[in-house]
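#struct-pred

JT: dropping the chains for the assembly here, can someone run the whole complex?
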Amino acid sequence: MAIIEIQNLRKTFRSGDVDVHALAGVNLQVEKGEFLAVIGKSGSGKSTLFHVLGGLTPPTSGTVKIDGKELTAMDEAGRTRLRRESVGFVFQKYNLLPTLTVRDNLEIARDISGVKGPWSEQFLDVVRILGIEGKMDRKPRQLSGGEQQRVAIARAIVNQPAILLADEPTGNLDTENSDLVLGLLKHLNKKFGQTVLMITHDPEAAAFADRTVQMRDGLLHGA
Amino acid sequence: MVYTLVYENLKHRPVRTLLSALAIGLGVTMMLTLVGLGEGMMEDQAVRARGVGADLVVRAPGSSVVGMGSLSMNQNILNFVRSQPHVVMATPVGIHSTGGVSSIMGVNFDEFSAMGGGFKFREGGKFADQGEVIVDDLYAREKKLKVGSTLHTMNRDWRVSGVFASGKLGRVMIPLALLQDLASANGKITMIYVKLDDASRTQEVIDGMKKQLPEYPIYAMEELIKQFSVSNLPELKAFIGVVVALSVLFGFLVVFLAMYTAVLERTREIGILKALGAGPGYVLGILLRETVLLAAIGSMAGILMSYGTRWLIATFIPASFVQAIVYSWWPIAAAITLCSAVLGVLYPALKAAKQDALDSLSYD
Ligand SMILES: Nc1ncnc2c1ncn2[C@@H]1O[C@H](COP(=O)(O)OP(=O)(O)OP(=O)(O)O)[C@@H](O)[C@H]1O
Ligand SMILES: [Mg+2]
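RK: done, full complex below.
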């Protein structure tokens, strides 16, 4: 079953008098449990695609279905619900809340989704796999980049989203930490069937994925 | 969980938090101090009036109820008053303003003292006929006077002969005859305090006197003392209104500024929360809670600071001003502060709630 179905997706930015077609008719299907890598040059529209998929910005035209929900028809409140219920984000710049401990960074993601009670066995497992169970009471600035990114991954999947969107998750990491994080993404994908979409411009990183598609001038190739 | 974030945010910028709370508290202190002064001074006046020990008072025609009065009544009235039924004692008092809120009181000491059950001298005793003055302990503290000190008033130097416990109407007293002489008001007094053989007949005696002295305001002391209330001071009420309005404005501005800069500083955090699926209400809730907490801390600080102003007043100007602690105004001042704070956070919070998640997350 396809968890993402995109047909003829367009996203046009207006900057001054010029229209920038960041997405110029994207078609893509992603199966549940797939680990997909998106590669492409800078400015080709990769991040824009993720922002549309994640409900951070509305599409200009086309149809996008995530987990059966039609995105084009959504208003801001609908996109907020999509972000809360169906999508987890991992950014290049970890984007943890700096004033909160690791535990509270994870808790606030649960709080926003209205989830209460103790952590599930599965999530405790995730935390162990990511190797952050000993860092729970630290603030982000007391962690290395690799550790912060592992916390960000845990936060992104704490509410078991349909899709995990990772935009250059290893962009700020050295090779050793990159391999660790990529390995962990793959492990989570295999062990829990978590659907993962990852942007990268590093072919070695893309090799961790099941399938790679290429973005060029707002169009996807190899999809 | 939201409270952890709110608390961490406040802790993250301790100076901002402290200064905002103090500034908010200042408004609370202003309100509490002013209300406390009104209540305190009225209460003090009531206590001092009660200390005279009279059942009723005859005042000069045209004088106001709570005003100080002057040497404007003919003392011949005294004989009439003394001849009334049930009157066991009537003593004249003269009051002469010495500028501002200070005044000097002339009494026939033995009579005046007897009516109120005697003076309690902390040190020294009664004045001599010439050149001596007695002061109450608050006045002595404010002006740093002791027995033997010199007090300069009414263009001359006086020797302090005694310091008495406050609560005897005046703070500075000299012989009545001397006061009349110095004020060039021979034969003039300000009012007559009257003691009856039976206090329950006060109204009956007043009614009798009023028939023959229709122009003279005559009050039962209990009635008069009831008049010493803030509600009878329209000017003070208006002034309290002004201070409340200023506090609201002040609280509004402080919170607006503090929260506006906080929102600007936290665009990334707000973007992260939105990316995690927080709606406008969630973001609004965080800032609102932070503001309520600031207002609560500020109110508490303001209440504490009002004890500070009371201490300052009691230490340095106890004879001029008395500040009461008016508990009933704590929740009022806190509620006013809360309202102004919530008004202040409205715009910053709406700005944050409407912020686009991508605004801050895309500057990578
Ligand atoms: N908010 C915006 N307003 C106007 N143009 C935009 C906006 N966001 C993106 N663009 C344009 O859309 C195109 C695609 O941008 P996008 O960020 O998706 O590229 P990318 O593939 O993620 O690049 P990179 O690898 O550098 O991150 C670019 O030409 C960019 O300038
Ligand atoms: Mg990008």
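JT: nice. The longest strand of chain A covers residues 2-15. Residues 2-221 of chain A form a domain with the Rossmann fold fold (CATH 3.40.50.300).
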